[in-house]
Amino acid sequence: MALTKALFAGQLEPPAIEEMTIDLWPEYDRPATLVMYRFRVASGASPSTPVSIPIPTSVDEPHAVAWRDDKGALFVADYTRKREGDRTLIEARLGSLEGQLEFYGALELDGMARTFRFRWPGGVPVGSLSFLIQQPAGARELRIQPEPTEKTVGQDGLTYARVDLGAQTPSSTPEIEIRYRKDSAGLTDPAPPTADTPSNPERSDSSPWLFGLGGLLAGAGAAWLAWSFLGSRSRTPSKPAEKRVAKAPGGERARFCHECGAKAQASASFCIYCGTRLVTN
What we know:
By secondary structure, the protein is mainly beta. The protein is about 5% helix and about 40% strand. The protein contains one helix and 18 strands. The chain is globular.
C-alpha cells in the first residue's frame, strides 16, 4: 500500500522545468521592467500535467500565460494561483512542452539612474536557469550583477547580455541586479497596443496568441524579425505576448505574419513585407 501511494503521488507531481530563460526588458513599453519567462518542461512529462511556475507575490496577475504549438503559434493557457510564502505558484495547463509567462516588475528611478532587482522565487527545480537582459534604447553605463556570460547585438540593433546560472534546486533563490543611466524617459517601444488587442483576453486553449504588434509596427517589421522562442542557447527573445492579437473586431481572427509581425489580408498566402509564407490555422 505504501508503494502504491508513493507511485500515485509521483504521478501527480508537477513536471520539472528542464530549461528556463528569463528575459528582462527595462523601459520597453512602460516605465517598468517587462519580465518574460520562456521555459521548456522536461521531455518525459505529459503536456496535460499542470506546470508549477513561481513568480514573486508582488505580482498581482500575470499579463500573459501561454504555450507554443509545433507550428510556432502561441495559445492562451488556463492556470490557477497558489501562494506559498514569498512566492506564488502559477499552475498552468499547457498544450505542449514549451510555455511563456509575462509580468511587469517595478523599476527604481533616481534622476538619470535606474535600478532593477529580480530574485528568482524558487520552489521548483530547474535544469538550467538563464537571464537575458535587453539594454534599453538610449541607456548607458549598463552594469549587471552577476557578471554577464556574454553580450550580443540582436536583430533589432539592441544589446543583449546573458547570465547563465545553471541548475537550481527548489531552495535556490538567486538574485540579479541591473543598473544603468538614461537621459530621457523615452521607451524602447512606446507604441501602444492596437485597437483590436483585447484588454482581458479569454483564457481558452482555442484562442491563439499570434505574433505582431499590429499595423503600427508594420513598416518596421523587417527590422523586428520574430526570434526563436526557446533553445538550449537562445540568443534573443520573442515578442511580448501581451501585444499579440487574439481576435479581430466582429469575432473573426486577425492574421499577422509570424515572422515580422505585419498585418496580412485574410486571403494572402505570403507576407508582403518579408515574403514569409503565412501559417494557416
